[in-house]
Amino acid sequence: FELSDGRTDPDDDELGTVLSSIIISDTIINKLIELGEGEDAVLVVDLPANDPRWYDSDDGPGEIKRLVFGAKILLGEDPDLNNPEIISQEDLLRLGEDDIDTLLDSLILSRTMVKEIKNVDSLVIPDELQGPENEHLWYDTETEEGELRKLIRVAKLMLADGSSEIDTDKILNLNDDDIDVILESLVMKATIKSELYNVEGLVINETHPDFYWDDRDEGGVRIDGELRKLLKAAPLIIENEEADIDKLLDLGDGTTDVNGDGVVDEKDDQIAILVASRIIVDTAVRELKTMTAEGGSLYEVLYLPVDAEVEYHGPDGEMRKFIIAIK
Hints:
Blueprint: H1 14-19, H2 22-35, H3 63-75, H4 89-92, H5 97-105, H6 107-118, H7 147-158, H8 168-171, H9 176-184, H10 186-197, E1 216-218, E2 221-223, H11 226-237, E3 238-239, E4 242-243, H12 270-275, H13 278-292, H14 318-326
Antiparallel strand pairs: 1-2, 3-4
Helix pairs in contact: 3-5, 7-9, 9-11
């Protein structure tokens, strides 16, 4: 770790000099392969001992060097190799793109990280990433980013500092770019859906023809899916991890600049953003039906339309009109 590695000055590469010894290189390779053996292996090492990717070439550093570069990030520049400790999760989540590039450049580190992710109980690995035939989707290619990189970006956005738990406050302060990052990750989308299924009292009618989780593209125009709609709407009514009905009274209806950007536009119609979510509207309608039924707190106080065909959803639906009326 104290050796220069040629990244700052290509002419100052003590590590490269050491690794130019076949005896040294092959000894390191065999030791790494040993670390990758067995069910309780520390590392995932799927390169055979005679694979040329272990060694430097005209295309760049070999896997031994890449592993050292990544280890310097994970263990710090001056680690105690007799008692190594990975840097704190808080520091991991603050890594810049260059450091993330360095980590993911190592085949061993990338595959080890994926193995660890698959063992995290709180994450849901969707079918699209299951099985050896889909393993390649975890890793970057020359043209596309892999799931591992996307998930690291999501973690930086959503996890609480110093914890592996999702930070609700961070979720409620996502901007549109942040939501784009979250919805790029197949794992995070599957995990969010799983969490929603487990929320008691939430109405999720996936059989309705207008319900779709993911964004769609129609003629080059993005049509928001339910996940995006929920992530946009949740901050408007959630307070202290619970729905706060009183917040409805403060929502903008698109007639004034409520988000402070100096422009009155669709972003100021917070009520429309809220009722765009079918889950939110369907859940609210069921709650209203319960409250206005005999024995409910609004029985014979509020009367819902008897027409089963009344449309509650969307910018022209009854739910938006009702919220505007009670304001």
